[in-house]
Amino acid sequence: MRSVDDILKRASQLSPEERRKLIDSLEEGLADEQASSAGAAHESVLERWLARAGTGHSDFTDVSSDKYKHLAAVYADEK
Questions:
Q1: In whole angstroms, how far apart are CA 77 and each of 1, 66, 68, 71, 73?
Q2: Distance (Å, rounded) from C-alpha 17 to C-alpha 19?
Q3: pLDDT tens by residue, 3-62
Q4: Which residues of 14-40 are buried (b: 16+ CB within 10 A; e: fewer)?
Q5: CA distance 26 to 66
Q6: Distances (CA, A) of 36 to 26, 47, 63
Q7: Domain limits, the chain
Q8: Are the C-beta atoms of 55 and 49 separated by less than 8 Å?
Q9: What is the pTM of this model?
Q10: Distance CA 29, CA 35 (A)
C-alpha cells in the first residue's frame, strides 16, 4: 500500500488539468460516502423510532379504544 506522502508526491507531478480531474474524482467520492453515511444514520434513527412505536404510556384513552361508545353517540337518535 502506498503511503500518503508517496501519493502526494506523485499528485504534485501531475499537470494542472490532471490534478483538477483527481480533485474532482476525490470530491465526488467523498460526497458519495457522506451521502451513504447520512442515509444510514437516517435509517438508524427511523428504525429506533419504529421500534419505540406503541410503547409509550398515556393516562388518556384514544378514540379507537372507546370506538363503540363514540359510534353509539354519533348514531344515537336525538329526538
A1: 84, 19, 15, 12, 9
A2: 5
A3: 888 888 988 999 999 999 888 888 888 887 777 766 666 778 788 878 888 777 666 666
A4: eeeeeeeeeeeeeeeeeeeeeeeeeee
A5: 59
A6: 15, 16, 41
A7: 4-57
A8: no
A9: 0.41
A10: 10
